[in-house]
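Quick board copy: two proteins, each given as sequence then tokens.
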Amino acid sequence: MNKDLSLIPSIRMKREAMTNTEKRVVDWLLDSTKFDKKTSLSMVAESLHVSEPLVVKVAKLLGFSGFRDLRKQITSSFEINHLNTIELSSQDSVQDLVDKVFDISVQTITEGRAILKSDVIEKAAKCFFHAKNRDLYAAGGSNTICDDIAHKFLRIGVRCNSYRDVHLMMMSASLLTEDDVVLVISHSGKTTDLLKVVNEARKNKAKIICITHSDVSPIAAVSDFVICTPAPDTPLLGKNASARILQLILVDAFFVAVAQQHIDFAQGNLEKTFHATEYFRQK
């Protein structure tokens, strides 16, 4: 893991376990237009109308020895990664907007790669491949990611069950066993319905793989394997939309890791499904 690249996304993940006031402090500190090497502890406290001890407390919760250590490392990360807070402006041209969208997408991918734990991908892939049943759960926009997963894995003969209705999810979860696995996608990691379904699956001893923005989210807390997508929040895309880019890339990485479990099996089925659908491509 590249420490310089992983610092900011790691802070975003730790932020989720904090109080609302502490989160406001973190958000201020991660804004490169406000926070730099000259920013004093008193300036942060005054700007946010909080006490200086609270700012120091936040620094220590984030793993720093104190405010000075926090300032040094965060501002250095801003410089090394050339990160800037991306804002919309009425003066932006279409080219400016396109550039900003690309910049935030590249930033999201770079940060995601820096915090990725390949050993988690490896263990989750082995569990997923050898499972008897594979349930895919999501809500809202994340359902499109589940559709993509189901399609990818069907191509190599690894069948999945993808559900959009929470009642069907719960019915399926109630029938799972220790031989089965659930892959749940939830950016917030807090969706009540998904959490209830995942807890039902866990009660029946199914293994849980989750893709979420923070390893301290409620769904992450009850999962066996956690794949994090700590995307930055921007006025352009928001957290969910920018996270979707990273989720799709991580799904591709997870897919090839599963396929690697039995390369001949995957390649043989890929040829079968390709030839089976060749007729439709000739129309």
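And the next:
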Amino acid sequence: MQSLSDLQDEYEFLEPDDRYRLLIELGRELEPMPDALKTDATLVRGCSAAVWVYPTTRDDGTLHFLADSNAAITKGIIALVLLTVQDQQPDAILDTDIEAALAPFDLRNQLSSNRTQGIPNMIALIRETARRYAD
């Protein structure tokens, strides 16, 4: 996956339809999440589409998230969210202003409210997970 800043540079120059395509492509680039991990326990509440997020830890203590969605755009959104925190230490994730990192993408104005309503819940779940591992 490309870096968040590279993605932002590309996103800024795209027309709305191309932005959708970019998000869909970003979702396709997510590491596959095994179906066995798509359970009620990993389901993000409050999303219009089903979104699953499963944390794993690396030997160095960093958190690596597996994620998936049953909707292509939503899968791209969770991929974008994960770009802000993937493979970081829990304390670094807690220090990351995810909303500010996503602000340049202006998702609330680019996508329908149905598509964006679950973003705060995705972010809250990631922060809650980081808090658990930081303690």
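Board note added afterward: Residues 4-134 form a domain with the Sufe protein. Chain: A fold (CATH 3.90.1010.10).
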